[in-house]
């Protein structure tokens, strides 16, 4: 905490609006420097993991933790390159994950650029 921030005198910061499960992802990364990307399911289950990663990225944006944000982007990229066991195809972040990124990040966000790149490179005209 920087000396000129109000929180530096109290020694604590309130994270009232942060999801405890997402903060748990951040704590896991702090201690183990890994982000688990496990779910290779399609549809809702697989997209829930993308949504959690998107929320984690927004938390990293809030906390101004560049290394964590980079780790989250790496995890999203790894997930997007993984073949789904059900059908052998790759899946990309859907509506909820995209919404979390766009609502929780500035316009210059690397996560926004990643989403645009994924859909530009892998998308279909229809």
How would you describe this protein?
This protein is mainly α. It has one domain. 62% of the residues lie in helices and 0% in strands. Helix 3 runs parallel beside helix 5 and helix 4 packs parallel to helix 6. The longest helix has 21 residues. The N and C termini lie far apart (48 Å). The model has no long low-confidence stretch (mean pLDDT 83).
Order of helices and strands: HHHHHH
Helix tally? 6
**Beta-strand percentage range:** under 5%
Main beta sheet: strand number and arrangement? none
Low-confidence stretches: none
Please indicate the count of domains.
1
Counting DSSP E segments of at least 2 residues, the number of strands comes to 0
Give the overall shape, derived from the CA principal axes: elongated
The amount of helix comes to 55-70%
What would you call the structural class?
mainly alpha
Tell me the radius of gyration.
16 Å
Compute the average pLDDT: 83
Distance between the termini: 48 Å
